[in-house]
Every structure is written in C-alpha cells, then in structure tokens.
Design a protein that fits this description.
The structure is a homodimer. By secondary structure, chain A is mostly helical. Chain A has ten helices and no strands. In chain A, α4 runs antiparallel to α5 and α5 runs antiparallel to α7. Chain B binds a DNA duplex (18 and 18 nucleotides) through α3.
Chain lengths: ~220, ~220
DNA sequence: GTCTATACGATGATAGAC
DNA sequence: GTCTATCATCGTATAGAC
C-alpha cells in the first residue's frame, strides 16, 4: 500500500492539534472577557488540559494573547489583500473592501471584539508612544498598520480623482472602523436592536448592504 | 454672624470629597484597563489613600464599577434629555442629538471607553439574557435603554414622515453608536490617524462636522 | 475616615515525574 | 506532551485601633 504523507495541507483529515485548540478557545474567552479577565486555568479547563500543558505550547500568557490577536489580524489582512487584485474603479474597490471586512468579522464571531480590544485597551500592550524605551511593534500591530494604510491609500485615490468628497481622511477611517467593527462586537445589545442573531446569514447580509450604502453615501462627491 | 449651610450645590467652593476623587480616578483606570485589569490597591494608591479606605466608601469593587458606569451614562442621558425640549423638525433634532452625544464624549475622555466596555464586555456584568435566574437590570443598563429608545423613536418618526430613508432601524442605531463612541474610545490609534490629540478643540469640532455630515447623508431620503 | 494587619482564594509560572 | 506539586504574588475583603 502506498503511504500518504499527512502534511499535505488537507484540513479535512487532520485532527486539530492541541495548539490550535488552545488558540481557538483562548480567542473566544479573551474576546468575551479581555486579557486580565481570563486565567490560564480557565483556558486549560476549557480545552480539557492541565494548566501546565498550556505553558508547554506557549511560553507565557502574554505570548498566547499576542498570537491570538495576530491570528485574527492575519485573517483580516489576507481577506483584504485579495481585494488588492481587484483593479477596478475606486468605488468598486471600496465596495469589495467593505464586503471583505464584513465577511471576515462575520465568519469568526470573536474577531470583532478582539480587534476592538486591541485598539482600545492599554493592557497588556500599552500604546507604542507610551511604552518605556520605545518597544518594537508587535506582529499584530504591524498587520494593523498595513491594513489601515491600504485603506487610506484607497481614500486618497478616490478623493484625488474627484470621486469621493474631500473628507477628513483620518476621521473617515475612524468612521469606517467604528461602523464595521463595533456592530459585530456588540453582542447582546446588537441582537436586541436588530431582533435576531447578529451572525445569522440574513443579518450579516443585511448589515453588509446597510453599511455599504451608508459609507457610499457618506463618501461620494 | 450668619451661618451659611455648605450644601448649596456650589461646586466652586466645595473641595472634592474622597468619594468623588475615587470615582474620578477609578473612571480613568477602568476606562484604560477594564474591570479586572484594575485592582483596588491600584485605585487606592492613585488617590493616595489606603486600600481599606475604598471599602469604606464602596461596599465592593463591583459597586464601585457599577457607580462609575452609571455616572457616565447619567451625564449622557442628561445631555440628550435636554435635546428633547428642542421641538423642531426631525433633521434639526437629529443634528442636536449628534451634537450633544459628541460633546458629552469629548468633555469626559474616559467616557467613550467605559461606554464601549459596558456594551462589549461580558464581565463583570453578563448580558441580561445569559444571567442566571434573570437578574434585574442595573441602573446604568436602564439609562442605556432609555437613551437608545429615544433615538429609535427619532428615527422612526423621520422615516414615517418620509424625511429619512427606510433604513434598517437596528442597523442604523448600531452605526451611529459605532461612529460616535468608537472614535473617542480609540485613543492612540485615533491620534495617529488624525495627527493630533483627539480631545483638542479643533479635533472635536471637526469630528462633530464630519459625523454630522456622514449620518445626514446616510439617513436622508 | 483613614489606617495597619490579616485572611484566603486565585493568579502566572516553574520543576520534575511519567 | 501531559501531568502533579509547589512557589511567590496579587486579588478582594474584613477586623479593629486611632
């Protein structure tokens, strides 16, 4: 019988490794309760492992959290990066950008909350400016920079072409982040407001339409 | 000599009580680091008091946090309540609503972050639906309900008058919250994006204009 | 009202057996 | 790779002197 190596990137057959299970569970817990609101014991019992086994896979809680954040931003960067291959008018690229961002938040429920935390919390990673002796940027921070700069370039292009209004670019970026990320991070409040589960197919599709129309109207000259 | 009682609500003369100092410091710390990211020792040393003195003013950390949240939402409710006396067309009342909300977030820097946390965190107050044995709504939760319901009524009125588009009301509320609250909660990222201090006079005034125009365009029929 | 002293569970992290 | 045992530290909260 022929032997088939099992490292062929076949996600169907491979059972998830402990490492992946830990990352998944930690993502959900950190999203709900924040960095210091979740203990290593709590994560360990959720993945049905001893607490010490976590420290075998991740040298510290800080490393685990950093990797959870980076995974989320990696998915976002990849999804938005594919859009860069779309070479249409700015309006079409804006549309694709919004679509991909909404889809990414919708596919992984904890993502929006974690993203929001990475932007708002001073803990456990304080803002680079306030950091003692100017620490280097973490992987997830560099990914965020790249994503934002790509969107900024899109806005500048649209404005210089006269397709978009001459909005304050910084404010426009803030607005778009707020509109897309907060919704999927709002959990209970969001469900109460829209009257159904936030991550259901119809709710996500409606959100995409509403956000797209809102931003289009806000930006168009 | 005539005796003047000192409980005349004269904020100029009264030195702030320990209680007020604690609430102010705790507001800033909880905003930056979240509920479980701040310890009572930390708060105590920041107000230059012994740790045990905090428990004299507040029976528990949970009570302190609840009161901090309620104070923030009280300021918001009061500011927006004054708008209800404006009896103009829906467009004018929407304008006043946005203006008041932005002004409230701008006047108290930690406010937006705390508000965001109260909407996103499951800790320390889990969503009412998930709570064991259906706990009663906390003061700050009731205030939030009132504020949102007033805004919902404004939207419904505008739509039924044909002044606003027939947007999804729940999504529109989410959008407005995201646009207004996230900006003032984003701290370091926001400052990098707009290139100056978020809470400076010019930045706040520009934000008000941008948000107002964005929402107006998004809602108008 | 503020303090010192104390209680005791939970925290992140390490050492070493299997 | 997973476990048990252990450590120092920090968490909230209380008791009681002044």
């Amino acid at each position: 019988m022929t032997e088939y190596p099992d490292n062929l990137d076949s996600p169907v057959l491979e059972p998830p490794s402990s490492r992946e299970k830990i990352l998944e569970v930690a993502e959900a817990l950190f999203a709900a309760n924040g960095y210091s609101g979740v203990g290593m014991r709590q994560i360990a019992s959720a993945v049905e492992l001893g607490k010490s086994s976590l420290f075998h896979h991740f040298p510290s809680k800080l490393d685990l959290y950093g990797e959870v954040l980076d995974r989320v931003l990696e998915r976002l960067e990849v999804a938005l990066g594919e859009d860069d291959e779309v070479r249409g008018r700015v309006t079409e690229r804006l549309e694709h950008w919004i679509e991909s961002a909404v889809a990414t938040m919708a596919e992984d429920p904890p993502a929006a909350r974690l993203l929001l935390r990475s932007l708002v919390d001073e803990e456990p990673f304080p803002p680079l400016e306030l950091a003692p002796a100017g620490r280097e940027a973490l992987p997830f921070e560099r990914r965020l920079d790249r994503v934002i700069n790509r969107f900024r370039a899109l806005l500048e292009e649209g404005i210089s072409e006269g397709v978009f209004r001459t909005v304050s670019i910084g404010d426009a970026i803030q607005t778009v982040i707020g509109v897309i990320v907060f919704h999927f991070a709002s959990g209970d409040l969001g469900e109460t407001l829209i009257g159904e589960e936030i991550f259901s197919g119809v709710a996500v599709e409606r959100r995409r339409r509403e956000v797209s129309e809102f931003i289009r109207r806000g930006l168009m000259a």
